[in-house]
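During the first year of the project, the team set up a workflow for recording each protein of interest as an amino acid sequence followed immediately by a discrete structure-token representation. This format lets reviewers and collaborators read both layers of information side by side without switching files. As required by the reporting guidelines, we include two representative entries from the current panel. The first entry is reproduced here exactly as it appears in our internal archive.
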Amino acid sequence: MKSGLKIALFLLLFPGMVLLLSNMVVAGPPCCGVSEVVEGGAGVPAYMEVSPTAVSAADGEVHKVWVTVLDKNKNPLPNVLVTASSDTPNRASVEPEQVKTDERGKAVFTIKGVAYFSGSRAIITFKAGDVAAKVETAQQFL
């Protein structure tokens, strides 16, 4: 029996199951229909671009940060969950904590300066799948 026929038979008998074949993922639909084939990880986050990569975060300052999620071919990925966190939330916060990318693979976050600490900074980390990027807040000195 050819492999394509085996896959079709498998998906008919076990709808909703996922079958992994080397670098190909074949996902069965929850009901009858056509399977989706994703070759070699296309459609999986591989790169992340962040702009700007550094911001000032004095008390009360607010900055927008744009995150773009791309696949291995550098194509934008829509509807990907991006999470954000601050390593020092009492210095700078980030909102929202998570957002899905739009049709252009972009997500927008807001970094807010929370308190002024001499010489301190915060690092904001953005993650999508196994990919991460960082924004560093500028150090403040008295």
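The second entry, processed by the same pipeline in the following quarter, appears below.
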Amino acid sequence: MMGLRRLLRCLAPHFGSCRQAFHGQRQQGFSLLEALVAMSIASIALASLYRTVGQSSKGVVDVESRIEAALVARSVLASSTFAEEAERQPSGVAGVWHWHVQMQAEQIPLREEDGRPAPGAPLRAAKFTVEVTRGKDGPMVMTWTTWKPYRSEP
């Protein structure tokens, strides 16, 4: 009969009476140690989450910065078809981006599709490197290199 009373108390909507029925003593709330352990676990989890979100947002800013720098470099490269045209403007500014062009004349030997040397004079071209920085003396964000042919013999 006593067991039935305990069972009925456990089925009652008030869960505190269930704990009281089985343990014979009344326990309220958490102990100080349990609260401290729970708070330390929560703080570690929140710190990890904060760090992850911070790194993700920094990564997004870095990617956006590199995309903008790449667009500036591509624009500078597209502004001239031949090396002579690129020599006219060796540096410039586009918003916060500063760019500088370095050119180096090279002789590029022509080859057949199978890799054998082709007859004729080598192609005269310039190695064209665009360096893009954020600000005048800021860190270099992007370097892009390509080759541009010379239109005529010097």
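For the second entry, the following points were noted during internal review. DSSP finds four helices and four strands in the chain. The longest strand covers residues 97-108. Both points are flagged for discussion at the upcoming steering committee meeting.
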